[in-house]
Amino acid sequence: MLINVTENIDKLVIQFPGGMGELNSYLFKGENGYTVVDTGVYSEQAIETWKQFLASGITIEKVVLTHTHQDHIGLAKWFQEQIHVPVIVSKSGYEEMKLNCRPQLEEEFKALLLAHGAPGIPEKMRNQSFIYDFEPDGFFENHEQIKLGNDTYETIWTPGHAPDHFCFYNREKKLMVIGDHVLKDISPVIGLWNGKEDNPLREYFPSLAIMHDYPTDIALPGHGELIYHLSDRARELEIRHQQRLAQVLELVQNEGKTAYEVCMEFYGTLNIIIYLSPFMSCLTRLIYLESIGKVHREEVNGKFLFRANKVVVEA
């Protein structure tokens, strides 16, 4: 079941229905057992995979999370309660956990979608607030040292894809665990999943730039294949985002549009079940463009319309 990455690191691909469909869980060998980084979503399929793996007699020392999106934290509570393994998260991740447990989350998330022209929450989206309802066993903050297996890694806060996203870097081995911060073949979704309007793309660009400060021979992403040229890939993502921003700006040059209308034009007609990620990408681009003075918004009939600001040409 394990795919060897380096001498002391293995990868276990956890498959599950919906979403990305699978997650790379990394296992770091240590004297007291494996450190697991990220778990997969809470699903029968994912639980069965872990049960089969654990049946081989493997010992898990602890679980460490890069961030608290459902596909990364989903089985952390299960590990803690059923396997009796401690779970370590960032302090900002703990704050996100509490946000995702609040009773009004679904109502606020729906209000955010409706305010930006979207039809609401797809009916098949399950409420999984229960996966966040536990107390972690330990915490870390930015630029601290954390043991993964027998090796020590620096924790690097990289907000954007998630407010609480962290990477883990071993300078001696030039190896970085990058979660969903950078992916090899696709661009990570920059969204607003906790129901709060913020400007995550503004945070993502500096987080991408940070990658140039950490010489990395091999990067371990949360999805897809390993990355061997991390700095180059980070630069590609930044260029791609700038291109997308220009395209979104062009769509609101002549009239005000909701983020949902921009999404439908940008990506074409989307099934209501799968529209959320493309919609979030468009919404966060519009919010970013607004923050740098490229567009403005006005509220019409309870919905926000974005329109490009006129360029003033001085004589």
Describe it for me?
This is Metallo-beta-lactamase domain-containing protein. InterPro entries: Metallo-B-lactamas, RibonucZ/Hydroxyglut_hydro, Sec-metab_biosynth-thioest. With 315 residues, the chain is an alpha/beta fold. It has a single domain, classed as 4-Layer Sandwich (Metallo-beta-lactamase, Chain A). The protein is built from nine helices and 14 strands. The strands form three sheets. A seven-stranded mixed β-sheet has the order 1-2-3-4-5-6-7. The chain has a five-stranded mixed β-sheet with strand order 8-9-10-11-12, with no helix packed on it. Strands 13-14 form a two-stranded antiparallel sheet. A hairpin with a 2-residue loop joins strand 13 and strand 14. Helix 7 crosses helix 9 and helix 8 packs across helix 9. The longest helix has 22 residues. It is globular, with a radius of gyration of 20 Å. The termini are far apart.
Quick tags:
single chain, 315 residues, alpha/beta, Metallo-beta-lactamase, Chain A, seven-stranded mixed β-sheet, 9 helices, 14 strands, 23% strand, globular
Question: What fraction strand?
Answer: 15-25%
Percent of residues in helices: 25-40%
Number of domains: 1
Structural class: alpha/beta
Please give the alpha-carbon distance between the first and last residues: 68 Å
Overall pLDDT: 94
CATH class: Alpha Beta
CATH architecture: 4-Layer Sandwich
Strand order of the largest sheet: 1-2-3-4-5-6-7
Summed up, the helix count is 9
Largest sheet: 7 strands, mixed
Can you say what the CATH homologous superfamily is? Ribonuclease Z/Hydroxyacylglutathione hydrolase-like
Taking all Cα atoms into account, the compactness measure Rg is 20 Å
Backbone shape: globular
